[in-house]
Specification:
The structure is a single chain. The chain is of the alpha/beta class. The protein has 2 domains: 105 residues, Beta-Lactamase; 230 residues, Rossmann fold, CATH 3.40.50.300. It contains 13 helices and 13 strands. It has a 7-stranded mixed beta sheet, sandwiched between helices. Strands 3-2-1-6-5-4 form a 6-stranded antiparallel beta sheet. The longest helix has 16 residues.
């Protein structure tokens, strides 16, 4: 990358870090755009991005092998160590036959769980020994931050072997009381499926999967959880019902009863997150939580998912909470505006 372009890119990323931005967007013939506190800000004080600049970004971030993969698949996401306290996730892709880049900024100084505004049930999750814990919500809702904070707390407090399967690795752990081993897809394992399958033959206590989406990935995660491991995973859905429906759909009609039983027995907790704009600036996490209690098991096993919300609303003794109730509470306390809550009502 030419020295002047490298200086431009370095200054832009460092400015974004100082402004506590979460992402930077690069599109040809446009100004760079920084996302901070959920808002997009066009950096018109910088130069309009050119095709040559976007092309040279490949040489800055990608190896020759990764560049070849981009040209073949037209998309690649990598992890990149920027500094001692910041890691980047860099996504190259094509749109309208032109290269675009999105850089996500991942601070390495993880937040404590108590600072995330998560409900008290999260403390109970820390003591689970087996089962499946899912975190869902829109991309950019703090899902990875929640998982990292949970794993880091376990790392500091419990003697466990933790294995992560990530695509790509976003946060690099340092062993404390636990041993944490991280495997990156395409570098250490060929696929998420292979990573999960291999871990089943290993003495792993806790498994983190950066994302599960396909039927095979979901089945493997459930199988791993039912075998005695504590499994954490992220899913790209915006409601707890949709998450469980997707899990059901992973099983054929002939395996429908088996699938419902496996989900009801293995799934322990689903956390559904949103990041909301606070009055006066900044953002706050809103999380609804489903806990698989006896009522939940009965409903899930019978496939009566339309009854889940009423279970959540009547099971507060089990630390459940639905998203609409959380939004209402924030409005009443003056934390968020009513129009902000309306965006996320489900």
């Amino acid at each position: 990358m030419p020295a002047v372009d490298e200086l431009y890119l370095t200054e832009l990323i460092n400015d974004a870090i100082r402004n506590e931005a979460s992402s930077i967007y690069f599109d040809i013939s446009n100004y760079p755009v920084i996302k901070s506190s959920g808002k997009l800000n066009k950096i018109s004080t910088r130069d309009v991005l050119t095709k040559d600049f976007l092309e040279t970004m490949k040489g800055f971030f990608l190896s020759d092998e990764q560049t070849n993969e981009l040209e073949i698949k037209k998309e690649i996401t990598i992890g990149y160590d920027w500094s001692s306290d910041m890691r980047l996730t860099v996504n190259f892709f094509y749109q309208k036959e032109s290269l675009s880049v999105v850089i996500d900024l991942i601070p390495l100084n993880t937040k404590e769980l108590k600072d995330l505004n998560l409900p008290s049930i999260v403390s109970n999750i820390l003591n689970l020994n087996s089962g499946l814990v899912l975190v869902c919500g829109p991309i950019g809702s703090g899902r990875t931050t929640t998982i990292i904070s949970i794993l880091q707390t376990i790392n500091k407090t419990r003697d466990k072997r933790i294995l992560t399967i990530e695509d790509p690795i976003e946060y690099e752990f340092i062993n404390d009381k636990s041993i944490i081993q991280q495997r990156e897809v395409k570098k250490d394992v060929s696929s998420i499926e292979d990573g999960i399958s291999q871990s089943m033959d290993e003495a792993v206590d806790i498994l983190f999967i950066s994302k599960i989406s396909t039927s095979r990935q979901i089945k493997l995660a459930l199988e791993s959880a039912s075998s005695g491991k504590l499994v954490f995973a992220i899913m790209d859905f915006d409601s707890i019902n949709t998450v469980i429906e997707k899990m059901f759909a992973s099983f054929s009609s002939s395996q429908k009863d088996l699938g419902r039983t496996l989900v009801s027995e293995s799934l322990k907790v689903v956390i559904n997150q949103r990041l909301l704009q606070k009055v006066g600036g900044g953002r706050i996490l809103a999380a609804e939580v489903f806990v698989m209690n006896s009522s939940g098991k009965t409903i899930v096993k019978a496939g009566r998912l339309e009854q889940l919300k009423s279970v959540m609303q009547t099971s507060r003794n089990d630390n459940m909470q639905d998203l609409n109730s959380v939004l209402k509470f924030f409005v009443q306390k003056g934390v968020i505006k009513p129009e902000e809550a309306e965006k996320y009502l489900i």
